[in-house]
Specification:
1 helix
Length: 371
């Protein structure tokens, strides 16, 4: 399997792994920490799997196919039909992000040597290197209006959060004086703020127009991978308070007030992502597999109103990661390990049915739904 990550992504993975390790072998949770709902952990019924809802064919997504030392970008319908290549070969491709109008894809790639931020038309035309600087740039995300791009970059000597025009013009550093590595940028749906992880353990926000960044989580609370609710009023994140035995799913107001723990089991949680309507939150839980004598991630879906969390991926697929909701909120796409290779899996949250999208023996990962 290739190693497609620049040092920034390696730092992020290491910091998240460290946070998860704090609770990986914990006993039962004692219920401490922030105010919490009390979710259960319900295994799916062992009935024959149902087919995916035919509506999945109306949803389209892109993903990366990786072979040895290069990658390709493919796009297809959610049921695996009409799969077409967007961009082939010539480097490693990561961190896909669709423009709000679905006409272009952002990604980071080392196709010119260093990792830079690129964009390409959805049909594979008009390929552009948007950064083209020394040192790695990565994790690009579009602004909600499609006019700007947020990304991280080491061009100023440390990994900071930058914003530039959708054509690469006018790049500006939004976090020059924070004194730590910035990662996981997440643009609020109203476009007013960008959330980020600082040093792998604190959540902050900053306006894309500039100004002083604000750190929202307390010094003694580990917080990482922020994600916005659809109304931009709440931030969901993985966190660990001093009395948490493992990282949990938290939410807070956009100003950092009212942090609330939403999960409580001893399994370490990570990468929570709210559904478009805010009724559910998908997240990863690190579960101990007795037969394999190791931990692996499973996909859970939390019903926010009832507080019940259900294992949505208790299948032979292993090590699920990189969750993303379809625009309509019925389907999840994620990367999972099957038959020794990464595959992009689409899950019907309503029925529990799932299937791989691609059919290549190569690694396939980093799914992104078209808006």
């Amino acid at each position: 399997m290739p190693s497609p990550c620049p040092r920034a992504r390696a730092l992020l993975v290491a910091s998240l792994a460290a946070a998860l390790a704090l609770g990986a072998c914990s006993g039962d949770d004692d219920g401490g920490g922030a105010t919490e709902a009390t979710p259960g952990s319900t295994a799916p019924e062992t009935t024959a799997p149902k087919p995916l809802d035919p509506a999945v064919a109306d949803e389209r997504l892109a993903w990366v196919q990786a072979r040895a030392d290069d990658s390709s970008i493919f796009a297809g319908n959610g049921d695996g039909t009409e799969v077409t290549p967007v961009l082939k070969g010539a480097g490693i491709y990561e961190a896909l992000s669709w423009s709000p109008d679905g006409s272009r894809l952002l990604f980071d790639s080392d196709r010119d040597g260093d990792f830079d931020v690129w964009s390409v038309g959805a049909d594979g035309t008009d390929l552009r290197n948007l950064t083209n600087t020394d040192g790695p740039d990565g994790a690009p995300v579009w602004s909600p209006d499609g006019r700007e791009v947020a990304f991280f970059s080491e061009r100023a000597g440390e990994y900071d959060l930058w914003v530039m025009g959708a054509d690469g013009a006018n790049p500006r550093n939004l976090t020059p004086d924070l004194g730590g590595e910035v990662s996981t940028p997440a643009w609020s749906p109203d476009g007013a703020e960008i959330a980020f992880t600082l040093g792998g353990n604190r959540i902050g926000v900053v306006a894309p127009t500039g100004g002083a960044p604000r750190l929202l989580t307390a010094d003694d609370v580990i917080g990482f991978t922020p994600a916005w609710s659809g109304d931009s009023e709440r931030i969901v994140f993985a966190g660990q308070a001093p009395d948490d035995e493992a990282s949990q799913v938290y939410e807070m107001a956009r100003d950092g007030s009212g942090p609330r723990r939403l999960t409580s089991s001893a399994d370490a949680k990570s990468f929570p992502v709210p559904s478009p309507d805010g009724r559910r939150i998908a997240f990863l839980a690190s579960l101990y597999e007795e037969e394999e004598t190791r931990f692996q991630n499973d996909v859970f879906v939390l019903d926010v109103e009832s507080g019940e969390a259900t294992n949505a991926s208790s299948t032979p697929i292993a090590d699920e990661r990189l969750l993303t909701w379809s625009p309509g909120g019925q389907f999840l796409a994620y990367t999972g390990l099957a038959r020794g290779e990464d595959e992009v899996i689409v899950l019907d949250v309503e029925s529990g049915a799932s299937r791989p999208v691609g059919s290549s023996p190569a690694d396939e990962r980093n799914p992104a739904w078209r808006p």
